[in-house]
Amino acid sequence: MKSPVHRCRDVEHARGQAGDGAGINCLQTEQRIPISKDVITSSSASAMWFIRDACGIVCAIITWMLVLYAEFVVLFVMLLPSKNLTYSIVNGTLFNILAFLALASHLRAMCTDPGAVPKGNATKEYIESLQLKPGQVVYKCPKCCSIKPDRAHHCSVCKRCIRKMDHHCPWVNNCVGENNQKYFVLFTMYIALISLHALVMVVFHFLYCFEDDWTKCSSFSPPATVILLILLCFEGLLFLIFTSVMFGTQVHSICTDETGIEQLKKEERRWAKKTKWMNMRAVFGHPFSLLWFSPFSTPDHGKAETYQYVV
């Protein structure tokens, strides 16, 4: 709970008497004001979203380089030299499809507005235009000077308040929020799948090379082949563990309808409780279909839904 002194720092109040204008009164009873989602949607929501953060950009480039390295080893070290054409075609097709979906999901997660609240809209004139009733209040963020809806948090990297912000992920150079959580979940899932697939192929290739002449199982020299496979094995194992844990964490967060920040801060639940299936459909779209697994499908997120400002 915020102390009355702290609450005055980021709360705008309507005066107790009608027509008195906006003022400060920290003793008013808390209420909620339903406001259309259009009010808190950024005007640049349809434009390209990209965070100019050096650390995030470097991490995003590293992510692509690691996937491309795995692609190189899988194709030119393991599959193309293989004598089994069916094995090469099946595994090459599967791996490339998963890698393409992983990179597409990464791009969508990175270049999609996660749910940014418009900057600088917490002006006296704008708050008066909301026609607050006596005793009603709205939160505003002192850092980006925006009207702060319920379940929104300020990101110091994006320098914006993000609706249903889960966390800021440098690997996708973006926040994970209301609008791009689906793409982030797909990204972790597809990376985990290609990591597992690469590990299985590495094991089979090692067994094949031990049974056959090492000079015939790869177009590279035996020492180079071993080094490339060991590096791929290490990369695959590391990212399989990391993305699997992240995927499980995200699915649990969606099912419980509680973001990572809300869990960390142990915030009081002020929103309606829904079933796990309803929470999943809210993130991935209605109804369930193969489009849930497509990074090219934009989910509906409940356009008719109204958001509550914490007041």
TrEMBL record:
Domain Palmitoyltransferase DHHC, residue spans: 140-266
Keywords, sorted A to Z: Acyltransferase, Membrane, Transferase, Transmembrane, Transmembrane helix
Record organism: Seriola lalandi dorsalis
Family the UniProt entry places it in: Belongs to the DHHC palmitoyltransferase family.
Protein name as annotated: Palmitoyltransferase
Membrane topology reported for the UniProt record: Multi-pass membrane protein
Compartment(s): Membrane
GO cellular component: membrane
Known EC number: 2.3.1.225
One Gene Ontology molecular-function label: protein-cysteine S-palmitoyltransferase activity
